[in-house]
């Protein structure tokens, strides 16, 4: 799709590296990292047993390698943006990360890519303030837990909540979880207690809740937990926002931090999920744009030919009164 739409040619491909142990330990415990390191050598039965200690996640012999690449890709993007090689960018990674906690995998996430990127940016580039925007339909509790007492990171998340009935079904996903100790006031949750949110709802929350706080916070870098299960067509998210709204949201965020923005893929709609949906929702094609007719009057000097497509008449001629009235209306509007 990136090639078909010509987007790949407009982008700079950033080389990927594996995250190092030191990178991962910025967020995760050494005990958890050492446990995940053993998964490539486990039997299928051992992997099943290992998986049972965590929630809603599956381990494969290759997942440790993939998770290191996912976190490393996010760090490479941060490096490219902070050094000015690119203005902004997006890391298309798997597995996702925003549910992963310090000592536990969760929700298909192994390492918390965005949380690691935030800590890495602060440590390497001396950033004082980092904004993390999470527009995935699920609450990124792993990111919240990581920074809930840290005033240098402002975390914002909107998510389907339905009065704690929607996964991950946590009390701390509600609106009154605003951070702890020094981090109080630097955690913003917008829980959706119903489905069907549209473009106008997303824009309203951005303009009336997030952006006023974000401008006051004045971040040095913006990171986005970019999950697209909050768009129309996702059978679990059940929201009605069109794909193009995320472009508008991104542009609004690019006015912060001098445009330094790194989006990292979280959850997206899979083709198999779409086929499972009993009632598929399709966003209609936008109507063809038609240039509206324009009427204007122009006084031409003597001897100047009338431009093509225009009609000329002089004061001595009997002009159509309808045309004269329309021109008077236009002139009055221009002088108002």
Automatic annotation (TrEMBL):
<dbReference type="InterPro" id="IPR023801">
    <property type="entry name" value="His_deacetylse_dom"/>
</dbReference>
<dbReference type="InterPro" id="IPR037138">
    <property type="entry name" value="His_deacetylse_dom_sf"/>
</dbReference>
<dbReference type="GO" id="GO:0040029">
    <property type="term" value="P:epigenetic regulation of gene expression"/>
</dbReference>
<dbReference type="GO" id="GO:0019213">
    <property type="term" value="F:deacetylase activity"/>
</dbReference>
<dbReference type="Pfam" id="PF00850">
    <property type="entry name" value="Hist_deacetyl"/>
</dbReference>
<feature type="domain" description="Histone deacetylase">
    <location>
        <begin position="2"/>
        <end position="266"/>
    </location>
</feature>
<protein>
    <submittedName>
        <fullName>Histone deacetylase 10</fullName>
    </submittedName>
</protein>
<dbReference type="InterPro" id="IPR023696">
    <property type="entry name" value="Ureohydrolase_dom_sf"/>
</dbReference>
<dbReference type="InterPro" id="IPR000286">
    <property type="entry name" value="HDACs"/>
</dbReference>
């Amino acid at each position: 799709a990136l090639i078909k739409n010509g987007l790949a040619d407009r982008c700079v491909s950033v080389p990927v590296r594996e995250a190092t142990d030191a990178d991962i330990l910025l967020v995760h415990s050494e005990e958890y990292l050492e446990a995940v390191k053993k998964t490539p050598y486990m039997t299928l039965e051992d992997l099943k047993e290992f998986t049972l200690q965590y929630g809603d996640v599956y381990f494969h012999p290759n997942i440790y390698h993939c998770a290191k690449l996912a976190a490393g890709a996010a760090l490479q993007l941060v490096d490219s943006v902070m050094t000015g090689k690119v203005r902004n960018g997006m890391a298309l990674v798997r597995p996702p990360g925003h549910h992963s906690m310090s000592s536990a995998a969760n929700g298909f996430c192994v390492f918390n890519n965005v949380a690691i990127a935030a800590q890495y940016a602060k440590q390497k580039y001396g950033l004082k303030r980092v904004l993390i925007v999470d527009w995935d339909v699920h609450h990124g509790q792993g990111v919240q837990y990581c920074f809930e007492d840290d005033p240098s990171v402002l975390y914002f998340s909107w998510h389907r909540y339905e009065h704690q009935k929607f996964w991950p079904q946590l009390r701390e996903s509600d609106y009154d979880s605003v951070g702890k100790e020094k981090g109080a006031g630097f955690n913003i949750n917008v829980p959706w207690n119903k489905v069907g949110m549209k473009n106008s709802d997303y824009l309203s929350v951005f303009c009336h809740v997030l952006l006023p706080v974000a401008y006051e916070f004045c971040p040095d870098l913006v990171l986005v937990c970019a999950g697209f299960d909050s768009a129309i067509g996702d059978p679990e998210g059940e929201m009605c926002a069109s794909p193009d709204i995320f472009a508008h949201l991104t542009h609004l965020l690019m006015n912060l931090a001098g445009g330094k923005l790194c989006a990292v893929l979280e959850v997206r709609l899979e083709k198999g999920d779409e086929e499972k949906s009993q009632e598929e929702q399709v966003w209609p094609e936008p109507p063809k744009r038609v240039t509206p007719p324009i009427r204007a009057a122009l006084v031409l000097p003597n001897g100047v030919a009338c431009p093509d497509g225009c009609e000329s008449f002089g004061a001595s001629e009997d002009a159509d009164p309808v045309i004269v009235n329309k021109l008077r209306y236009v002139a009055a509007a221009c002088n108002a």
